[in-house]
Amino acid sequence: MAMLYGKHNHEAEEYLEPVFGAPSEQHDLPKYRLPKHSLSPREADRLVRDELLDEGNSRLNLATFCQTYMEPEAVELMKDTLAKNAIDKSEYPRTAEIENRCVNIIANLWHAPDDEHFTGTSTIGSSEACMLGGLAMKFAWRKRAQAAGLDLNAHRPNLVISAGYQVCWEKFCVYWDVDMHVVPMDEQHMALDVNHVLDYVDEYTIGIVGIMGITYTGQYDDLAALDKVVTHYNHQHPKLPVYIHVDAASGGFYTPFIEPQLIWDFRLANVVSINASGHKYGLVYPGVGWVVWRDRQFLPPELVFKVSYLGGELPTMAINFSHSAAQLIGQYYNFIRFGMDGYREIQTKTHDVARYLAAALDKVGEFKMINNGHQLPLICYQLASREDREWTLYDLSDRLLMNGWQVPTYPLPANLEQQVIQRIVVRADFGMNMAHDFMDDLTKAVHDLNHAHIVYHHDAAPKKYGFTH
Ligand SMILES: *Cc1c(COP(=O)(O)O)cnc(C)c1O
């Protein structure tokens, strides 16, 4: 690889044409050291744009949950606030106020009880928010365990979660020395197995994580049922109760609008904290997440630091320090711009497109549907078994890419890894017209594959293809 960029590249450079009329564009881009000379802004812009040219179009990226469209007014507003550092709360007190308003709005959306004192913060995304939720559980557990006289050195603390966890929980456990007690998933249990979850809980359990929207399949853990078994457990273990953190990275800004009657949030007594990604169904460009605790007692004071604020002090608990305030401001823009009705309308449309796509894909006759968008608006399917089919889902991903669509194919997590699935995430900017275009392209791709002479793949082992976050 490095050879290509090495000193012996002079001949190659001679073939670079100055298409845009400036001699500096005749040179290859610096890849290893800061260039000696500067370029004009126009040239630098041109060269960097060209470098990005053959990358996928984000609107056609059906792999990501992250927002790929915001309104021009929101983008302008965010551009104008890029230079504000969100942590400088005394310099930008209105921005700090806007963050607090967002926390209020979100706590209300998730039914934080009136008689408790919720608290929360913005983060860079759900990964940081999950770190904070996990750390709070670890610190609070340690205090309870000490008071109960447990030997803290006898075992490492553990966290209980289903095998459908997102990688941030693996990071949490590695970074903070926590064992992960993984509740297996199988074909009968494609989410947290509530009947067996307590088998994984012991005195060293810092908490149980429920997932509102498993990243791989879009299924929800049954939080109400989990809350019930936890209530029962806590009656029997009053000194060392366990609590629930809900990883609602995707569902946190989706479920309240699409299934308001579904009870998964602070209405459940044992749910102490919830995180969500503002940049998923909160409809903001990447770079914002949220975590809220139902009551301050669940956020140990050691994790709260003070920054100066208008001559006074304001608590901060985020891990990151400096970052632009633009995403926060984009989130507040969306809240006041859309309101309950607007969010409901947007998510309902997204839901309808997902349901249409699921039905249309089922009709193709080649797929066994695994998730048909009835919860999160994502669709997963395997190939239906057929002896004489020569192509795989990886081949189908390749064909779809010829039309620009990026559709990931990957194996399911542990125990289910022999099942290779394809996943489509529907977002607000993926309208019905695009869905029709997609189905036209997919139908043609399947037809072409069925009539192609296929060279078999030698490597039969499942592989990952495309992002799965
Ligand atoms: C996306 C996702 C995360 C990570 O969120 P980021 O905002 O990308 O950091 C964590 N958990 C679940 C369930 C997710 O879907």
From TrEMBL:
Cofactor(s) this protein cannot do without: pyridoxal 5'-phosphate
Organism superkingdom: Bacteria
Pfam families in the record: Pyridoxal_deC
Catalytic activity line of the entry: L-glutamate + H(+) = 4-aminobutanoate + CO2
InterPro entries found in the cross-reference section: Glutamate_decarboxylase, PyrdxlP-dep_de-COase, PyrdxlP-dep_Trfase, PyrdxlP-dep_Trfase_major
Keyword field: Decarboxylase, Lyase, Pyridoxal phosphate
GO biological process annotation, one example: L-glutamate catabolic process
An annotated Gene Ontology molecular function: pyridoxal phosphate binding
EC numbers: 4.1.1.15
Residue numbers bearing the N6-(pyridoxal phosphate)lysine modification: K280
Record-level GO cellular component terms: cytosol
Function: Converts internalized glutamate to GABA and increases the internal pH. Involved in glutamate-dependent acid resistance.
UniProt family annotation: Belongs to the group II decarboxylase family.
Listed NCBIfam families: Glu-decarb-GAD (TIGR01788)
Listed PANTHER family: GLUTAMATE DECARBOXYLASE
Record-given protein name: Glutamate decarboxylase
Organism this protein belongs to: Lactiplantibacillus plantarum (strain ATCC BAA-793 / NCIMB 8826 / WCFS1) (Lactobacillus plantarum)
Lineage, top ranks: Bacteria, Bacillati, Bacillota, Bacilli, Lactobacillales
Gene name in the database record: gadB
